[in-house]
Amino acid sequence: MAEAAGEGDQRPPSWKNAWPFFVAAGVVGLVVLGVVLSNVTRPAEDRAGDSAQVQYAINDVYTARNGPNFAEYRANTCAADVEAAGFVSEEQFLADNRQSLVANGHIEIPEITELVVDGDRATAKVHWHYDKTPDDVNVVDTIVVRENGEWKVCSS
Questions:
Q1: To bridge 52 with a disulfide, which of 11, 48, 59, 60 should be the other Cys (CB 3.0-4.6 Å)?
Q2: DSSP per residue over 26-84, as a string?
Q3: Which domain holds residue 69?
Q4: Among residues of the chain, what percentage have pLDDT more than 90?
């Protein structure tokens, strides 16, 4: 019997025929590795957009008050406020916030609303309350400015 046309031309697949697939897989692997390394080596704050960084700055100021941690509070406050004559001293900051913690508990921020970033300046409404009085919510208009690439809470 004669073979059907074309059946004799079939050869078993060879790994050499798959080299374009291996090259493509290698390129994809290098791209994925680059993205992973970038995310591991850069802090979350650097990967976040301006709105998220503004929220981090606001949160850091309130976290410093909960500490109380004057160095953190000062580091997250704009230079204009820190250099102002009426800026709170470390002793007063610690005394006020320790007393508040005992009397009221920690400050909690359930939400930040109306966040608007305009260049190096942002505004937001910070909704906060003490954990001992969760129904007594305060809403504070907050200004945040970018100084040397970092967002800082500022009084004006």
A1: 48
A2: HHHHHHHHHHHHHHHHS-HHHHS-HHHHHHHHHHHHHHHHHTT-HHHHHHTB-HHHHTS
A3: 52-154
A4: 69
